[in-house]
Structure formats: C-alpha cells, structure tokens
Write a structure and sequence with these properties.
Blueprint: H1 9-21, H2 28-35, H3 40-63, H4 67-72, H5 77-213
Length: 214
C-alpha cells in the first residue's frame, strides 16, 4: 500500500493564504484538496497552527489602533462580537466536519492495518508450509541420492562380473580345444594299451606252446 506523502507547515500555510486571497474559506478539506496529498489529521493540525498565527496577527493590529479611532468604532463592538460568534460557530461546524473526516480516515487506516495484519499472518503460515515442503524435499533428495549411490555401486559390480564372465567365455574355445586334445591322446593311449594287451596275450600263448613242447 502506497503511503501518503508528508506535508509541511509551510505548504499548508501557503495553501491557506491562497484560499484566503481568493475570498475562500481555508478549511482543512479545502487545503487538502489544494495540496492534493497529505492526511486529514496532519492538515487539520497544521491548519490550526496557521489559524492561531492569524489570530495573534489580528490582535497585534488591534493593539496599534489609535485610541480615538478605537472610540469611534466602539459602537461596532456588539456587531463584531456577534460576527465573531457566528464565525466561531461556523468554525466549530467546520472542525466537527473535519473531525468526522479524520475519524473516517482513521477507520479506513485501521481497516487497512487489520487487512495487512491478516495478510501478514497468511504469508507467515504460507512460509511455514513452504519451509516444511522444502525440508521434505531435501530429505527426499538425500534418500534418492543414497539409493542412486547404491544402484550405481550395484551397476559397477554387475559390470565387473560381466567382464569376468566375458573373459571366461573367451577362454571356452581354448579349453574345449585342450579337452579335445586330451581326449584324442586318451583314445590313442587306450588303443595302444589294447594293442599291448593283445600282444602280451599272444606272447603268453606262444610261451605256453613252447612249454608244452618241452
């Protein structure tokens, strides 16, 4: 909410003098409209200072009047008092109107303060909710990071095992060749053993024949 600009006594006094020069009544509302800014309470207070100065100036003027002139206008005193009373009554009415304006402005400002307080409480609650969400997201991120590390380690172990398996698969043809070689050698040895057994049997037969001939 934009704040109303600050006004000075000099600004209020100048606006009141201008209104008085134009034969207009320098009320708080008229001065504020002439200034175009400022709160009614501030304008009212500064205008009262200006009016007090106007009263002192009028009294000083009355003190300097020649006594003969004062006696000449003495018969106007009753009229002057009546006029002053009328002015005081009008001024009182103006002040009451100004007071009503000030009260209305204070009520508006109180409403704005209440609205701002409620809005601030809402923002505070929303901030607390967002802080909770951020904390939960941080915990989720930490958990996801830990799980990702476990999965990465598992993937690394799987890669190592796969490399070992590939090495074993590469060695299979060589092992199979060696097995075939051993099988061939074993078959040859079996064949040679069978031949040797046959020859031994034939030799034993020949020996038996020779023994019988003796």
């Amino acid at each position: 909410m934009a704040r109303e600009s600050t006004i000075t006594y000099e600004q209020v006094a100048e606006a009141a003098d201008n209104l008085k020069t134009q034969n207009l009544k320098p009320t708080s509302r008229a001065v504020r409209e002439a200034l175009g800014s400022g709160s009614m309470a501030t304008v009212c207070k500064l205008l009262q200072q200006w009016q007090a100065g106007q009263t002192r100036q009028s009294q000083a003027t009355d003190d300097t009047i020649d006594p003969s002139v004062a006696r000449a206008i003495s018969f106007h005193i009753a009229t002057k008092i009546q006029t002053a009373t009328s002015e005081a009554t009008a001024r009182l009415a103006d002040m009451q109107g100004e007071l009503a304006s000030v009260i209305q402005e204070n009520e508006r400002q109180s409403k704005e303060i209440s609205d701002l307080t409620e809005e601030a409480a809402h923002h505070k609650e929303e901030g607390a909710r967002l802080a909770g969400q951020i904390e939960q997201l941080a915990a989720d991120l930490a958990r996801a990071t830990s799980e990702l590390e476990v999965e990465r380690q598992a993937a690394e172990n799987a890669r190592i095992q796969l490399a070992k398996a590939e090495l074993r698969l590469e060695a299979v043809p060589r092992i199979e060749a060696e097995i075939e070689k051993v099988r061939a050698e074993l078959a040859a040895e079996r064949k040679a053993s069978a031949t040797a057994r046959e020859e031994a049997a034939e030799l034993r037969g020949n020996i038996a024949v020779l023994r019988e001939k003796k």
